[in-house]
Specification:
By secondary structure, the protein is of the alpha+beta class. The chain is built from 28 helices and 72 strands. The strands form 22 sheets. An eight-stranded mixed sheet has the order 28-29-27-30-39-38-34-35. Strands 56, 57, 60, 61, 62, 64, 65 and 68 form an eight-stranded antiparallel sheet that branches.
Length: about 1450
């Protein structure tokens, strides 16, 4: 109580004293007449003088507070920021806490100075210092100075013993006035609602007048108005006792209480003109006349037991009148007139109460039953049939003849009933053995009583009341009843029947009373149990007790309805008179405090969490503030805060959240706000079993980050001939931002989208920089235009102009972030070498995926699936977008959070988009791109992420079917057999003991993602079945009999391999491996595999025929071919000198030698390439080298054949022995024979090697699928074959024409030309047929006959060159025969016959075919040529 009281006094007295000093310093008797104050200021006081210049003064405060509060007061004052504005005319510049006096051990006071303050020397001498004096004065004295002085600033105290200077107090000098001045001061305080009663009590406890010092006295403090929030979120301003609102405020803002007086005491709002409640005595009555109250009599006819009659009479006599029932109804009087009860004869005897009697005519008709000592009788033997009752004695005329009667007794009874407009409630009497009838009473004078806060009701409808079953019962003409009247049970006793009739009762009807029903609830933080609803349960008993204790009053009743789930929610109902929001909140607070002693209970705040700012820019900071908890909940200050988001607890994460406590408020800071942070926030402040809960009633609004687009980006601008050049710049940003475009000197434009044409007036080398920046933010983009002279080598709209080899940057499309990079090529085109453009929503999701938690994961995955599905076309065509989404899925997989069915479906929808057919080309570029992790490992990372995600699925059983992926999870015990999507059947036998679960993910189009490379790095296979991912809880237990049956996609493929994806192959890039899997059955378009482990499986099948005969033919044929070529070269070496004598023959043999050498080297590299293909490991570089040489030397063979054909054509169409020299023709031959092949081979490898599509996987030959590099061989070869055929036709035509006219001198060369023509005529069809069959193997890979024929002709090319290019030449055979003869003549013999050399068989062949005749003797050798 001490601190609030002191604080209130400080605030009030500070402002009063300040205002007083302000007016006195102005040297005027100004006064402030507050029209709404309780005290009225005399009208003779002058008005305040206008102040033009602000005036400063000091105010001295003397407070008496508990010692324990001293540190709190000191800290509170230190925490205030100065200057502190009280209102428009008053400002506190500073508050200095100087002196603290408290009791010491001797019973006196010890006054200590605060920091930087001290006592003057005289005070130290007079009172004695209580601390060591180390300076010019002391800081503590043993007493309080009687002159009212306090500690002074150290800087203003002179050293001792200098005479004490005149002490200047901190109170400013005041202007002397002859008369005291009274004025009113208006204070407007903002305090917690819970402190309001405490403040009211504190002010009431102060005794007035209250003297502050010699010149200032507080006469009175009046608490007039209290404004606090109501249930609608507005303010409800209530007047204190003896204060009310003027009529105009009641009309404008609406009264929140019944108006029974000239004005209202509560309005729904705070007046904007600053007015407050005024004293009731100073408020003029409202102009609207108040309706007069209506008086009416009410007649009651009651049937009650006779034994109750005395009790009823005494009860009515004990009531003091007038008696107020409620705000609108007052009973002025109740008169008990008549009592009727059975007499001894079986009839009725009706007796009047005191001061009542029967008229004479009734005494005569029914007979008096008592002595008549007055002008009438008091008892008659019967009940009048006309419904009359006893009348007041004063209103009865005397009877002409007195009739003696029996002694009667009179009963005065006053009763009360009330009426509601338009309400009928009949009253029925019940036949009972004992009844009482009460006769009429006279109407008493009516006194009108005005009740506060009520409205008088002008008219009341009187409804008839009917009695039944009783004889001689009179219907009451003017009776009204109130609803909600409690009927008491009637007790019947065996007595003489008595009928009671009640005279009309005069009442005053005002406003009707409305019974309200308030349905409220409380929340216990315990698990719900149905047994709580049993009345014998402790929870029910304790809760009901708390409710009855806190809310039951004479005007209302409370009832616990029951409990329901949601922690444990207790519902209760309050019935009765209307309760204000403050009263209801007090009831709820009481129940909360009562139950918190037994159970953890939650108090729900009427206010909501504060969100700042309400509109948050993506990835920026936002805060949620909770509290402070109301003081009347008694949570104290040592509470702990627990935060929730969408009913899920927010766990600590220093990258996402920061939890703090500021000024008794809990603050949640969202360090990086994303769209998934939009939702319902809740905070719980816990102290023991008390929980204060506050929720958000609105959501944050997400604003996208500014996305600046500036075109062109930095680039060269070429200009020529001093001509001006115009460059159009575009600067734009997304809504609701605006940008400014400027250069180094001025602003060029502002707005959401800016177009600016920059004119280069003079063509010279300069640079111009332009900046596009978001207004009010730091985000910007810059573009530097480099002006250069000369013509550009490349030019397009994306990268602009540039010179050869220059790099340039281009802007992305709208709604994309990043940039593109291009290089200027020799062909004059820009080549895009890097594209980092990513969809903006995908990029934001990628950033958020690094900061996921349990609260954000559901919303994040929902957004991810929506973005991926809605932007399918943009995603699948962009390697950058696919890379980003794969990274997102990898981050999700690496986040240790459980995955339920809803989350799994969002993941499958996202992953399914990445596997569509439209993504196939993008995945091929990723898998076959540069050898870095960001490219070639993408498919493996994608599959690995899905495998990891399946391990974290928490559902025991589920089935999710999306367009591209099917996910099933189930349990099994001894065995498992199931078919998935009618494409894969899985059978597991004997997995182990106990129940196990299995998760199967079936992909419809994963073949678009995973490359068909096997452990040998061969790409000659295709994925020919669904890819299926299998996970089970069996763990590392060996599994020996898992069976997969795959339905084949393409039944034409052959050589099936059962494979799984091995993530460790090829430097962790991944590939298909068949270890532990093998095919066991192939039938009906399906393949059954048996494996001994679980992971991702599929079927690889080759488009190539598995032809063992072809392999045998190839290796045998290549061996024969190489041997033939070696023999060919040996023969050429033997006869080389002989064939050089003729130019044409020489050139032909040069071609033959080079053809043989080229084919021989090509065959050698073919064998090397086959060995490389079969070798384990990654041998792509060696395979590429082998392919290059095979390609080059095969082409050289064809091009040397082309050179031979051109020689034939040249010699045929030109004059013999004329034209080009031998040296020239040799140069031409070598240029064609090796120059053409080297150009084609180099261009081929340069064009395909960067994308790794030069070879067909690990098969060392030109690629014939992705890059179609095989065309670089087939097209030149077949073109040369076709050219050969044309040359042969031309040569044959020319030679046939010249043969008829040729002379013998040209016969030798004609013979050579015929040999060349004959060779070409044979070899050209053979080679053409061979490579034609090679094309056939590509067109029809399943035709085994074509493969055998191609293997045969291709492997025997060397043999064909030996036979048709060399041995069929007669001159060659002649030279061989001569060499053999010479060799034979030089041998040793043992008889007259000659021994033959190794060439003997050739000599015999020559004799039979070429007409060579050789004869010899001992003296000479002769030979003759007989060409036949």
């Amino acid at each position: 109580m001490g601190l609030p009281k002191a604080a209130a006094c400080v605030a009030v007295l500070l402002v009063i004293y300040y205002s007083l000093d302000n007016q006195e310093v102005m040297e005027t008797k100004a006064s402030y007449n507050h029209s709404r104050g309780k005290r009225q200021v005399s009208a003779t006081q002058p008005s305040a003088t206008t102040i033009n210049v602000p005036m400063d003064f000091d105010l001295l405060l003397d407070l008496t507070i508990p010692v324990s509060i001293l540190p709190l007061l000191r800290n509170s004052l230190n925490s205030i920021s100065f200057p502190f504005t009280l209102n428009q005319s008053l400002q506190v510049l500073d508050i200095q806490f100087t002196t603290a006096c408290f009791p010491n051990s001797t019973g006196g006071l010890q006054c200590t100075c605060e920091d930087q303050f001290a006592w003057p020397c005289d005070k130290c001498d007079v009172y004695g210092a209580c601390s060591n004096v180390t300076g010019p004065t002391c800081e503590c004295i043993n007493g309080r100075p009687s002159d009212g002085e306090y500690c002074e600033p150290i800087t203003s105290i002179n050293p001792c013993p200098t005479p004490t200077p005149v002490i200047t107090t901190t109170t400013a000098m005041m202007t002397t006035t002859k008369e005291p001045m009274d004025f009113d001061l208006l204070l407007d305080l903002t305090i917690p609602v819970s402190i309001l009663p405490l403040l009211r009590n504190s002010l009431n406890s102060i005794s007035f007048p209250f003297t502050l010092n010699q010149s200032l006295q507080v006469l009175d403090i009046q608490f007039t108005t209290a404004c606090f929030p109501n249930s609608t979120g507005g303010l409800q301003c209530t007047c204190e006792d003896q204060f009310a609102w003027p009529c105009d405020k009641c009309d404008v803002y609406g009264a929140c209480s019944n108006v029974t007086g000239p004005t209202c005491e509560c309005i729904n709002g705070r007046p904007s003109d600053g007015e407050y409640c005024e004293p009731i005595t100073s408020i003029n009555p409202c102009p609207t006349p108040t309706p007069e109250p209506m008086d009416f009599d009410l007649l009651l006819d009651l049937t009650i037991p006779v034994s109750i009659l005395p009790l009823l009479r005494n009860s009515l006599n004990s009531i003091s009148f007038p008696f107020t029932l409620n705000q609108s109804l007052q009973v002025l009087d109740i008169q008990f007139t008549t009592a009727c009860f059975p007499n001894s004869t079986g009839g009725l005897q009706c007796t009047c109460e005191d001061q009542f009697a029967w008229p004479c005519d009734k005494c005569d008709v029914y007979g008096a039953c008592s002595n008549v000592t007055r002008p009438t009788c008091e008892c008659i033997n019967g009940r009048p049939s006309d419904g009359e009752y006893c009348e007041p004695i004063t209103s009865i005329n005397p009877c002409p003849t007195p009739t003696p009667e029996m002694l009667t007794s009179t009963v005065r009874t006053t009763t009360n009933t009330t009426t509601m407009p338009n309400t009928t409630m009949p009253v029925t009497t019940t036949t009972m053995p004992n009844t009482t009838t009460m006769p009429n009473t006279t109407t008493m004078p009516v006194t009108t009583t005005t009740m506060p806060n009520t409205t008088t009701m002008p008219n009341t409808t009187t409804m008839p009341v009917t009695t039944t079953t009783m004889p001689n019962t009179t219907t009451m003409p003017n009776t009204t009843t109130m609803p909600n009247t409690t009927t008491m049970p009637v007790t019947t006793t065996t007595m003489m029947p008595v009928t009671t009739t009640i005279m009309p009762v005069t009442t005053t009807t005002m406003m009707p009373v409305t019974t309200t029903i308030n349905e409220l609830s409380f929340v216990l933080d315990i698990d719900f149990d149905e047994s709580f609803n049993e009345e014998s349960n402790d929870v029910f008993i304790n809760a009901n007790r708390a409710i009855q204790t806190q809310c039951r009053t004479p005007q209302s009743s409370c009832q616990l309805s029951g409990f329901r789930s949601g922690s444990t929610i207790g519902d209760y109902t309050i019935r009765g008179a209307s309760l204000s929001d403050t009263e209801l909140q007090a009831i709820q607070t009481g129940i909360f405090l009562d139950l918190s002693e037994t159970y953890p209970i939650i108090f729900d705040s009427q206010s909501s969490l504060k969100l700042e700012p309400t509109t948050v820019i993506s990835q920026q900071e936002a805060t949620v503030t909770c509290g402070p908890p109301p003081a009347n909940l008694n949570l104290g200050t040592n509470w702990t805060a627990e935060w929730r988001f969408n009913n899920n607890p927010i766990s600590s994460n220093e990258d996402l959240y920061e939890f703090s406590k500021v000024n008794e408020e809990a603050v949640l800071t969202l360090k990086r706000f994303f769209g998934t942070d939009i939702g319902q926030y809740e905070c719980r402040l816990k102290s023991g079993q008390k929980i204060f809960r506050e929720r958000s009633n609105k959501n944050f609004t997400l604003q996208e980050q500014p996305l600046i687009r500036l075109t062109p980006l930095s680039r060269q601008i070429h200009c020529q001939d001093m001509a001006s050049v115009e460059v159009k710049l575009e600067c734009s940003v997304n809504e609701p931002y605006t940008v400014v475009l400027r250069n180094s000197t001025k602003v060029l434009g502002t707005g959401n989208s800016i177009s600016y044409s920059f004119l280069i007036p003079i063509c010279e080398k300069t640079e111009h920089t332009f900046t596009c920046q978001v207004i009010g933010r730091q985000e910007l983009k810059q573009s530097t235009l480099e002006i250069t002279t000369g013509a550009p080598d490349c030019n397009n709209d994306v990268f602009g102009t540039g010179n050869l080899g220059q790099m340039a940057f281009g802007s992305c499309e709208r709604d994309e972030v990043g940039e593109r990079k291009g290089v200027c090529q020799e062909d004059g085109l820009w080549k895009e070498v890097e594209n980092n453009c990513t969809l903006r929503p995908v990029q934001e999701l990628l950033l958020q995926s690094e900061l996921l938690n349990a609260n954000s994961l559901p919303g994040f995955l929902d957004t991810l699936s929506d973005v991926t599905v809605n932007f399918t076309e943009e995603v699948v065509k962009s390697p950058t977008n696919i890379n980003a989404i794969v990274d997102i899925l990898s981050n999700v997989a690496n986040t240790p959070l459980p995955i339920n069915s809803d989350l799994a479906k969002d993941i499958l929808l996202t992953a399914g988009v990445l596997t569509t057919n439209g993504s196939r080309g993008t995945w091929e570029s990723l898998n076959n791109g540069s050898r870095n992790e960001s490219q070639t490992r993408r498919s493996s990372t994608f599959l690995q992420s899905l495998e990891n995600i399946t391990r974290r699925i928490t559902d025991v059983s589920l089935a999710i079917d999306t367009p591209y992926i099917l996910l099933n999870k189930t349990t099994f015990t001894d065995s498992f057999n199931a078919s998935f999507n009618s494409s894969v059947t899985i059978v597991i036998s004997e997995p182990g003991e106990g129940e196990k679960n299995i998760t199967v993910m079936t992909f419809a189009s994963m073949h678009n993602v995973l490359p068909a490379r096997d452990e040998a790095n061969s790409s000659r296979f295709d994925i020919n079945g669904r890819v299926v991912l299998v996970q089970t809880s069996i763990g590392n237990i060996p599994i020996n009999n898992i069976s997969f049956t795959f339905n084949l996609n393409n039944t034409s493929l052959v050589n099936p391999q059962c494979v799984f994806w091995n993530f460790s192959l090829f430097d962790d890039r991944g590939g298909w491996d068949n270890e532990g899997c093998m095919p066991v059955e192939i039938k009906n378009g399906s393949v059954t595999c048996n494996c001994n482990h679980l992971t991702s499986f599929s079927i690889l099948m080759s488009p190539f025929v598995n032809c063992e005969v072809c392999s045998l033919i190839t290796f045998i044929g290549v061996g024969i071919s190489m041997a033939s070529l070696v023999i060919c070269l040996i023969i050429e070496a033997v006869i080389w000198r002989k064939i050089r004598r003729n130019t044409t023959s020489y050139l032909r043999h040069v071609s033959i030698v080079n053809i043989a050498v080229s084919l021989l080297i090509a065959d050698i590299w073919f064998i090397i390439g086959a060995s490389i293909s079969e070798a384990p490991g990654d041998n792509r570089d060696a395979c590429s080298a082998a392919t290059f040489f095979i390609h080059f030397f095969y082409l050289a063979m064809f091009f040397w054949m082309l050179a031979s054909a051109l020689l034939l054509l040249y010699r045929t169409v030109s004059v013999f022995d004329g034209g080009l020299s031998k040296r020239s023709m040799l140069a031409i031959g070598f240029s064609i024979g090796y120059g053409g092949p080297i150009i084609i081979a180099v261009i081929t490898i340069a064009a395909t090697a960067p994308s790794e599509t030069y070879t067909q996987g690990k098969f060392c030959w030109l690629n014939f699928k992705e890059s179609l590099a095989i065309i670089a061989f087939v097209l030149p070869a077949l073109t040369i074959v076709l050219f050969h055929l044309i040359i042969l036709i031309v040569v044959l035509f020319k030679m046939l024409r010249r043969r008829a006219v040729a002379d013998s001198a040209q016969a030798g060369q004609r013979n050579v030309l015929l040999v060349i023509a004959r060779t070409l005529a044979v070899l050209t069809p053979l080679f053409g047929l061979t490579w034609g069959l090679g094309i056939g193997t590509l067109a029809d890979p399943e035709n085994q006959g074509i493969h055998i024929a191609f293997s045969f002709f291709n492997s025997l090319q060397g043999f064909f060159i030996l036979v048709f290019g060399l041995l069929l030449d007669k001159k060659v055979r002649s030279e061989i025969a001569i060499k053999s003869q010479i060799s034979g003549s030089g041998t040793t013999s043992t008889s007259a016959g000659n021994s033959s050399s190794a060439f003997g068989f050739l000599r015999l062949w020559r004799r039979g075919r070429d007409g060579y005749n050789i004869s010899s003797n001992d003296s000479n050798v002769t030979q003759s040529l007989n060409p036949s």
